[in-house]
UniProtKB/TrEMBL annotation:
Gene: glnS
Descriptive protein name: Glutamine--tRNA ligase
Domain tRNA synthetases class I (E and Q) anti-codon binding: 458-532
Highest classification ranks of the organism: Bacteria, Pseudomonadati, Pseudomonadota, Gammaproteobacteria, Chromatiales
Domain Glutamyl/glutaminyl-tRNA synthetase class Ib catalytic: 29-339
Domain Glutamyl/glutaminyl-tRNA synthetase class Ib anti-codon binding: 342-442
Species of the source: Marichromatium gracile (Chromatium gracile)
Motif residue range(s): 'KMSKS' region: 270-274
Keyword check for Aminoacyl-tRNA synthetase: yes
Length: 557
RNA sequence: UGGGGCGUGGCCAAGCGGUUAAGGCACCGGGUUUUGAUCCCGGCAUCCCCAGGUUCGAAUCCUGGCGCCCCAGCCA
């Protein structure tokens, strides 16, 4: 993980902020993370959270959590609470209470009145289609709305009546009066307020039938909160002139500065709220926290740690370039954290019974095994050893591929933490399938190297009499192509049908019996696993977070 | 074809007129190892989208191309 001696990795935004601080433009940095509560947070939000909160934290400033709740149709409190949970889980604290853009609706309304009074906003009666026609195209200028030059007094009266609920949805809007011929379409008299009757807003209830748009709400909310640097993604770059326009023409207490960075694109996943919502709604996954989802909740259930996610965000950096980050980046971050912190355990995923013919029937040997190979402070636990064991089917081969160093007929292998054994006999059923192995131990090899030969293979095992049966869920990428939905196809066609494999008869070493949901372990030679909340006292359920790096399994078995 | 951005190795990304063009991920060797893990050592861009130009000197400045992304919601 990040070495304390190593300087904080920087990026162009941090450089701008530090320069502003150094120049005295601001004496304290204030940022904000502004999610719309219309879905769960995903890995892309984690990048923004890490940037906004991380920047404020490291520079002694403040980062506000502000819900951008201007479109009550799609928002709800479940999402508000889930978002708070996720931000906290990532390890960040926001300044004061969580805020809502809706906290400012009254002030925002007042600012709109200010614009009207200056002749900078007007009530327009064009409907949506007409407005589109009047807006022009990318290459042709728009035409002024017939309502553009209404007298101030009339606009004031109409706007008040809009608020009073006198007009139906869609019949009027309040528009900024900027420039219908602007090459930047966002400046062609954008809508500031629209009418929405009959929606119960999760914060303001039925107090309003008038809702401000993002373009109006965002800059003014930033200014109200004294945000110094308002960080957003590249698609808002075109909106910056409008952002600045709003702040300049209204009696707001500060002048925030918007800076844009590129959003994260992670291979083999989708990170668009629309698509994630569909995956959940259409049942392609089990919910927002399905371990295959790139949501924070999904990654948490998958076994990712806040540390790994934050480290990942540090590693990918913050720039304005289009990017497509490889999964390997994310996986490397979680492996680094878990390698250092996850206690080791033995778990047999696909059991094959082994009977040790020269080991006493009811003798149980308790072997002490270190919980971590290079961190003694993690202690040790006892593992029972007996005559009957389970090993993984993949660790035995009747006809081994070249280079195989596990168990083969007549061959020897080291049982991790225990003896070296030799496979003496292969027992098959009527169908010819291997059902059991009969083997013998070399009693002189417990904690010692065998004499006169070297045994290169080491495999894990579990004593049959003491094994804890469990379910293990192996997850793979949700999509089978790096860019789902590329080339205009439906991203749903790229869903990987084998993204989940459930193993129902796994055998775990007994110390895993009482593991609690959320606990993480390394199953030696397999990977990192976390206890799923679906676990019961009788039957634990583990999710594979990520496998171990495997330089053998790549081209072989 | 209007406007706004971006273009450094397979991926991410430093670089801010003088560096042998950081670092991470991935990959390829080699060593240690009772996890084919970890760890350690080594390799991996004579070149920075292309072409001109300025300069003693350019990935960094200028000009012209080319490529890619975003914008015509009363979404954010």
């Amino acid at each position: 993980m990040t070495d304390a001696a190593e300087p904080t990795r920087t990026n162009f935004i941090r450089q701008i902020v530090e320069a502003d601080l150094a120049a005295g433009t601001h004496d304290r940095v204030v940022t904000r993370f502004p999610p719309e509560p219309n879905g769960y947070l995903h890995i892309g939000h984690a990048k923004s959270i890490a940037l906004n909160f991380g920047l404020a934290e490291s520079l002694g400033g403040q980062c506000n959590l502000r819900f951008d709740d201007t479109n009550p149709h799609k928002e709800n409190v479940e999402f508000v609470e889930a978002i708070k949970t996720d931000v906290r889980w990532l390890g960040f604290e926001w300044g004061g209470q969580a805020r809502f853009a809706s906290d400012y609706f009254e002030r925002l309304y007042g600012f709109a009145v200010e614009l009207i009074e200056q002749g900078l906003a007007y009530v327009c009666e064009l409907d949506a289609e007409q407005m589109r026609e009047y807006r022009g195209t990318l290459t042709e200028p728009g035409r002024p709305s017939p309502w553009r030059d209404r007298p101030v007094a009339e606009n004031l009266e109409l706007f008040a009546r809009m608020r009073a609920g006198e007009f139906p949805d869609g019949s009027r809007t309040l528009r900024a009066r900027i420039d219908m011929a602007a090459p930047n379409i966002n400046l062609r008299d954008p809508v500031l307020y629209r009418i929405k009757h009959g929606v119960i807003h999760h914060q303001t209830g039925d107090a309003w039938c008038l809702y401000p748009t993002y373009d109006f709400t965002h800059p003014l909310s930033d200014a109200i909160e004294g945000v110094t640097h308002s960080l957003c993604t590249l698609e808002f770059e075109d909106h910056r002139p409008l952002y600045d326009w709003c702040v300049e023409h209204v009696s707001v207490p500060s002048r925030p500065r918007q800076i844009e960075f590129s959003r994260l694109n992670l291979e083999y996943t989708v990170t668009s709220k629309r698509k994630l919502t569909e995956l959940v709604a259409e049942g392609h996954v089990d919910g927002w926290d399905d371990p295959r989802m790139p949501t924070i909740a999904g990654l948490r259930r998958r076994g990712y740690t806040p540390t790994a996610l934050r480290e990942f965000c540090e590693r990918i950096g913050v720039t304005k370039s289009e990017n497509r980050v490889e999964m390997a980046m994310l996986e490397s971050a979680i492996r680094d954290d878990l390698d250092a912190h996850a206690p080791r355990r033995m778990a047999v995923l696909r059991p094959l019974k082994v009977v040790l013919t020269n080991y006493p029937e009811d003798e149980v040997l308790n072997i002490s095994a270190a919980n971590h190979p290079k961190d003694e402070s993690m202690g040790s636990r006892e593992i029972p050893f007996g005559r009957e064991l389970y090993i993984d089917r993949a660790d035995f081969a009747e006809v081994p591929p070249k280079g195989f160093k596990r168990l083969v007929p007549g061959g020897e292998v080291r049982l991790r933490n225990a003896y070296v054994i030799r496979c003496d006999e292969v027992v098959k059923d009527a169908a010819g399938e291997v059902v059991e192995l009969r083997a013998s131990i070399d009693p002189a090899t417990l904690g010692c190297k065998p004499e006169g030969r070297k045994v290169k293979g080491v495999i894990h095992w579990v004593a049959a009499a003491h094994a804890v049966a469990a379910e293990v869920r192996l997850y793979d990428r949700l999509f089978r192509v790096a860019m789902p939905g590329a080339e205009g196809q439906d991203y749903r066609n790229d869903i990987n049908p084998d993204s989940l494999e459930v193993l129902v008869d796994c055998m775990l070493e007994p110390s895993l019996g009482g593991a609690q949901p959320g606990e993480r372990f390394q199953f030696e030679r397999e990977g990192y696993f976390v206890v799923d909340p679906d676990s019961t006292a009788q039957r634990p359920v583990f999710n594979r977070t990520v496998g171990l790096r495997d330089s053998w399994g790549k081209g072989n078995g």
